[in-house]
Amino acid sequence: MYLELFYLGAVQPVLKYSSTVGMTTESSSIIIDGKLVAKKIRDEIASEVARIKDSTGIVPGLAVILVGSRKDSQTFVRNKKKACEEVGIESFDVSLPEDCTEEDIIKHISDFNSNPSVHGILLQLPLPQHINEDKILNAVSIEKDVDGFHPLNFGRLAMQGRDPLFVPCTPKGCMELLHRYNVEIKGKRAVVIGRSNIVGMPAALLLQFFWSFGFDGNLGDFLSIFF
């Protein structure tokens, strides 16, 4: 039984689920479009944001830091701001020039870390080559690292029994699709295309993480993951 996860850039994640080994993809796969699920999730988030605002007076805030002028990065940031508007989340954004220094970026991160109106910080990747990405990601407060890229969050994802505070959004979105469509992963062979720290590696870790909750000691139920 096969389960393939694909991430197509700015396009919605697509799942191809094949229930029978040996059959062609065309005859046995179900294509799950994430748009309908995303719409439902956004409606749920909008309701939760309204509830929080009514009960506490707090409006969730998301800060996005963009370095440089890559068109794809600008599109991602624009889409994030639009999504915030749709669900009632307040957005803060900073755009820095390509030739900015690490200190420039860290200063803005520090400001957002200490700003009580900001509850999450997104650093749009990739960063320019002269910037030490690890150093910058380490500067984000682990409690506001909504991308799940801080080494402590990533490390907790890899360790059994230690849930991360946040998980990278694309692989988490893929797992949410599996959950919402009741796709059982025990005994499956999962093919993860790519092994980056942003998508491929956390996707494999999440597959293993969610499989472990359903493990009943039957070695035949093992999940096999291929990169």
Description:
The protein contains 8 helices and 8 strands, in the order ββαβαβαβαβαααβαβ. α8 links the parallel β7 and β8. A 5-stranded mixed β-sheet has the order 3-2-1-7-8. A 3-stranded parallel β-sheet has the order 5-4-6, sandwiched between helices. The protein is of the alpha/beta class and 227 residues long. The chain folds into 2 domains: 1-58 and 168-227, no CATH class; 59-147, 3-Layer(aba) Sandwich (Rossmann fold). Mean pLDDT is 82; it is low at 1-14, 18-27 and 213-222.
List the helices and strands and how they pair.
Layout: E1 2-6, E2 14-18, H1 25-28, E3 29-33, H2 34-56, E4 61-67, H3 71-87, E5 90-96, H4 102-114, E6 120-123, H5 133-139, H6 151-158, H7 169-180, E7 189-192, H8 200-213, E8 224-226
Parallel strand pairs: 1-7, 4-5, 4-6, 7-8
Antiparallel strand pairs: 1-2, 2-3
Helix pairs in contact: 7-8
Short description:
Residues 168-208 form the Tetrahydrofolate dehydrogenase/cyclohydrolase NAD(P)-binding domain. The chain is built from eight helices and eight strands, in the order E-E-H-E-H-E-H-E-H-E-H-H-H-E-H-E.
Provide keyphrases for this structure.
5-stranded mixed beta sheet, Rossmann fold, 18% strand
| Average pLDDT metric | 82
Distance between the amino and carboxyl termini: 16 Å
**How many individual helices?**
8
The residue ranges in which pLDDT falls below 50 over 5 or more consecutive positions are: 1-14, 18-27, 213-222
Q: Give the strand content.
A: 15-25%
The structure class reads alpha/beta
Largest sheet: 5 strands, mixed
Binned, the helix content reads 40-55%
Shape: globular
Got a strand count?
8
Helix and strand element order: EEHEHEHEHEHHHEHE
The largest sheet has its strands arranged as 3-2-1-7-8
Our Rg estimate from Cα atoms comes to 19 Å
- Give the number of domains: 2
